[in-house]
Amino acid sequence: MAKTGWFETVAEAQRRAAKRLPKSVYSALVAGSERGISADDNTAAFAELGFAPHVAGLSAKRDTSTTVMGQAISLPVFISPTGVQAVHPDGEVAVARAAAARGTAMSLSSFASKPVEDVAAANPQTFFQMYWTGSRDKLVARMERARAAGAVGLIVTSDWSFSNGRDWGSPSIPERMDLRAMIRFAPEGIARPRWLLDFAKTGRVPDLTAPNLSQDGGPAPTFFGAYGEWMQTPLPTWDDIAWLREQWGGPFMLKGVMRVDDARRAVDSGVTAISVSNHGGNNLDGTPAPIRALPAIVDAVGGEVEVVLDGGIRRGSDVVKALALGARAVMLGRAYLWGLAAGGQTGVENVLDIMRGGIDSALLGLGHSSVHDLSPADLIIPSGFRRDLGMSD
Ligand SMILES: Cc1cc2nc3c(=O)[nH]c(=O)nc-3n(C[C@H](O)[C@H](O)[C@H](O)COP(=O)(O)O)c2cc1C
What is the pTM of this model? Predict the structure, then answer.
């Protein structure tokens, strides 16, 4: 057993993260926006779905493997990109290692704290995620850097609407971890000695920079400096998405699709995959849970592109529900971040093991031998559950 100890559910990982992390870092992971309607619905919607299990004639062996964006993965769960800093000194490298150890793919945010070269070296199944920020030349340079590092797919996230208020208060995060900031945040750090010790052992303080957004080998911009440039960048059109997809040439995902009309436009832009997602409820509050929007999108474009889902996945049975409604795989956000905070690489592996165990139990109960056999008939779906968005044109 690792020194941090095994945990049995994602809820326990979250409790440990809350105990271990300074308040401002923990609240940056919880995130959510405005009233938190979307963030709450993301998990509540899974609880509305039930199962219709069998009692005998069950399958002794269950296969959880699949493929996504050309990558063979051992379970239909992979890492969603999160631009978040200071959770653990090994950050996204630990996450990438854990995903590799469990046979699945990693997605790295361009706002992440570790360089793509280190992350792709830790997991050869790394997808690089970009926002539409900076000029076309800068976008291409960033993308080519990721390709040279070994990234095997590109994810473009374009659902961000710069919503930043939260009724429960936003964390106060310094621009840079300089002496002034360290003194200001010292009480938080002292209250969380194990977190402080983890960083102290590396001889570094969290540097709060975005190394994947540096230009021409220059210094990494600060997280907020990079955010400022993004806010000033003209917003992408569908032609821009198609252009970037052309530039990349390989497997390409558009993340954040919630409507059937947008899913169709994404197909027209030549994408390989879409993620039905509301950015973990961190975006336009009042957007329903992606699991509600999934069935209509699968009906419309499921035969043409790979449809994955992210938002609200906390257990293996959530994964099975998403697959039964037509997702090819799901991506994890907060669940692995809490695992990372609770136990570094081991904690992320623990979360992936929880997912695998839960998927296997649900498959057993439902009488299936493979994740590919799941269908809506396995579920109890209350009337009015679906939200068919953007069906009119
Ligand atoms: C702290 C935090 C930071 C995030 N940063 C990014 C990001 O940089 N790029 C991105 O595409 N999505 C980002 N997301 C969204 C996640 O990729 C994912 O869509 C979401 O977390 C899924 O919901 P879940 O947390 O309920 O699993 C972030 C989410 C969180 C919680």
Answer: 0.95
Nearest residue to 153 via CA among 329, 301, 338, 325: 329
CB 330 within 8 A of CB 308: yes
Percent of the chain with pLDDT over 90: 79
What is the homologous superfamily of the domain 10-380 according to CATH? Aldolase class I (3.20.20.70)
Closest CA to 295 of 378, 386, 379, 377: 386
Residue of the nearest CA to atom 27 in ligand 1? 333
- Cβ contacts of residue 219 below 8 Å, gap of 6+? 209
Catalytic residue flag (residue 279):
yes
Ligand 1 within 6 A of 91 CB? no
Task: In whole angstroms, give the CA distance from residue 345 to residue 90.
Answer: 8
CB 139 within 8 A of CB 159: no
CA of 362 to the centre of ligand 1 (A): 26
* Predicted confidence (pLDDT) per residue in 181-235, tens digit: 767 777 777 788 888 888 888 877 777 889 999 988 889 998 888 888 999 999 9
Tens digit of pLDDT for each residue in 289-320?
999 999 999 999 999 999 999 999 999 999 99
Structure confidence by residue, pLDDT tens digits, 276-297: 999 999 999 999 999 999 999 9
**What is the rounded CA–CA span in Å between residue 165 and residue 32?**
9
